[in-house]
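Sample A.
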Amino acid sequence: MTRFAALYPATAHTFLPALDDDVTLDDEAGHHLSRVRRVRAGETLTAADGDGRWRPYAVVSVRSGAVDLHAQGAPVVEPPLEPRLVVAFALTKGTKPDLAVQKLTELGVDGVTLLSTRRSVRRWGGSRADVAVARLRRIAREAAAQCRRARLPEIDGVLPVTELRGRPGLVVADPAGEELERLHVPPGGEWVLVVGPEGGFDPDEAAALTSPGQSEDDEGPTRLRLGLHVLRAETAAIAGAAVLATRRAIREDP
């Protein structure tokens, strides 16, 4: 059987807290499967725990707002991709962060970090930030179900960009940066793509991003060119993740 849930012939994909043999979904997921996806008894779907384990299930019965499932095979571990890929982008206005998180999830990133910068137009703080991050986690979960991932991305923030100082594997989106072909796989096994606001980082923030990494092998951040024009923050985040995704490979355990 394929190791990836996305390649398994199934009608739909969902997430469960535990991959038990018999499962009844009578929550929001059950409502979605029964009333929106309109799954039927006898069909097959896949379910994951969000940490990489997934399992095929047969739909036993469907009721209003609820679905009964029975496992059709043992749990499978979806192999991670390497290097890990985290995207840290500056807050933007309106629903643009929603769009960015949705598309980054579809592109397979391992994490998304929201950055507060001095030139960001939008400001989140306190309870407002907690509510906004919770909403983005729901969006990521929905997107992960749509693209049939077994691993949910980590959604973090809101952090000042200066907290990225010295972090290994930084890749800063920069119109004057290097071509993708010259980008090396980081020694620590993780890329952190940093996307600033459309006005750019202020001098203190820019200085924080030029600090060398914590490893002797890490000479500091790489500048990556995503094109010759100025991109909106959400566009740069998506475009950068897309090109870096082409350089990732399936990690084969020894």
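Sample B.
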Amino acid sequence: MKIHSKFQDYYDSALGSFTESDVSVIRKKSIVEIDLKDLPDLGEFDGKWDTVNQGKYGTTYGYKQIVLVGFCGTWYYFIPNYDRTPNMNPDDIEYCKEANIEYKTFDEIVENNKIQSLFKWKQGKEVKDPNNEPFFKELFEKFGPVLLIKNFRTLPKYAAPISAEKKLKIEVWPELKSLTFYKVKDAYTALWEIEHWYDSHARPDEAVVPVGDDVTRLQAYGFDKKTSFRKAKEKK
């Protein structure tokens, strides 16, 4: 696989390690927006990691923003090492480049909010994992294999009309090195998954399929020459 891009990422070091695919990928950064009103109901999953600090002057409550990294059909969650302040720009996570980012499982997020939350009525409420929702799976089909949601939020249940117009920003092809994604997948595993993604999800706007005989083209679109159910048309 070849990657055409204006930036480099950590998994680029593994380029040339695999020979299964000749697909060339155009890796181009962009931002897309989704209407909050189109998001499915995730229960009490509001994108916040509740915190309780036992400081010198007593107990303080706060939260950290949960950041969603989408990679080849699966969403991963991390917690930046900051406590949210009123003056913090919710769309600014440049601080993550040198931060001690902590990746968490969905179960850890649910357990944290169950124990730490200031709002006790949240305890026991249903919390849905985006990985189990078709809507979030389809985002990969629409926009590509590597996505980032810096400031995940859902539409409040009792929102004013103006709130219904708010958007959820999704970054396409973010730089995973600055997000320490190598803690989740090493370079070779990450590149293999991206390559496999394009072998089975060839997109005309991002992948250039090699020109060749019928077998070559079918393989580039994800069909295995040994197991594909497609057969050549019989001549009449």
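B remarks: Residues 81 and 117 are 18 Å apart (CA to CA). The chain has four helices and eleven strands.
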